[in-house]
Amino acid sequence: MKLGRNFTNTFVFDVLKKQDQAKILDGTFSMFSMNALGLMKFKKSIEFQIEKAKALGLDHVELDCDVPNPYPKFSKKKKEGIKKFAADNGISLSAHLPYSGMGVGPSIASIQELDRSFAVKLQKKYVDFAEGIGAVNLIMHPSGTIPFYYISDFYVKQFTESVVNSFTEIGRYAQDKGLKLHIENNVSFDGLFVEPEECLEVVKAVRANGVNIYFNFDIGHWFTRAEKGKEIPQNPEEKLNIIPAEYICEFHLNDFIPSSMDPQKQFTFHPPLHTESGPLKRANLENYWKILKAKNPDVLILLETAFKKLDQVKDRENIIKSETAYIKEIFK
User: Fold this and answer.
1) In this predicted structure, what is the pLDDT of residue 271?
2) How far is CA 313 from CA 28, 82, 160, 305, in A?
3) pLDDT of res. 150
4) What is the pLDDT of residue 209?
5) Vertex 52 angle, CA 220 and 24, to 5°
6) What is residue 119's DSSP assignment?
7) Residues of the chain whose pLDDT is less than 50?
8) Domains in the chain, number
9) What is the pLDDT of residue 145?
């Protein structure tokens, strides 16, 4: 098993100017302002992320290519330098292709062929970037948010066909470059491809087209179904049992606190796992690893904790170190 991270916003504070750091700490600037001021610089600082991963005893770093990002402008020389730096430090890399509604990326599910084909062309630019830095895996969401007035069996069939076509095209392009493309389940707010079964059908269809893609099951994303009135089972990790071993390569591991578990009735994405503040308790994680190890002991587990509170930013080093140690102890 290899353990890695998408650092999300956990160390964005470290790349800010001193005067901006001071304004974050005294509350003048919000957490969203911290991201706005520093996220681009943090994404550009790949060597910084690699050094952080190595210091934590991790094996892997996943880069977030969602917009905004600086990656399409990286020169060949810069990409080669990152590839060498990662290799010299024993850190492998992957890239999460654009996914939010701010960019064209989600249009891979568009039933308008012009839009879908342009989205595929854009995603291939990020595949080129990933190849240039020596990445091994690619992660892609099956769509952006589907408006409620499109939720019809007829439209869903068309969306699914578009997603299969896009994953086939991008997956073949990635496969030819030695990269493994994964489909990651959406959050419930997106409307489609939230359930693992939906994503597994896409994997099956794409593989029938002669392209090997994989399923990245994000269990925290699946927990968002609670916000749509659906149950989170007592042993949610048992859902892993339906995933064929040959579809497993990289998994995202994070938690989600439903609004029903919060005194203020607010949901929280990606809380630190070792605090056990969401549905995933230690016993669940022990069983999670037991099931996954039996299927594919060489799986890459990627942690995606994100900070929502200033106190977390202030204690960032301790939180990330403690969570890493906690997971390592469980996934021996």
Assistant:
1) 98
2) 15, 27, 40, 12
3) 80
4) 98
5) 75
6) H
7) none
8) 1
9) 72
**In this structure, what token pair is assigned to residue 276?**
């056990």
CB-based burial, 125-158: b 16+ in 10 Å, e otherwise: ebbebbbbbbbbbbbbbbbbbbeeeeeeeeebee
Cα maximum dimension of the chain: 56
Task: Report the CATH number at residue 139.
Answer: 3.20.20.150
pLDDT of residue 314: 97
pLDDT of res. 149: 83
Structure tokens at 270: 């990606």
> Look-up: residue for tokens 């292709």?
97
Strands annotated E in 143-190: 180-184
Structural domain that includes position 67: 2-330
Percent pLDDT > 70 in the chain is: 99
What pLDDT score does 38 carry? 97
Sheet of 250-253: strands edge to edge? 214-216, 180-184, 137-140, 92-96, 60-64, 2-5, 300-303, 250-253
Q: Say how many Å lie between the first and final Cα of the chain, rounded.
A: 9
3-state class (DSSP) for residue 63:
strand
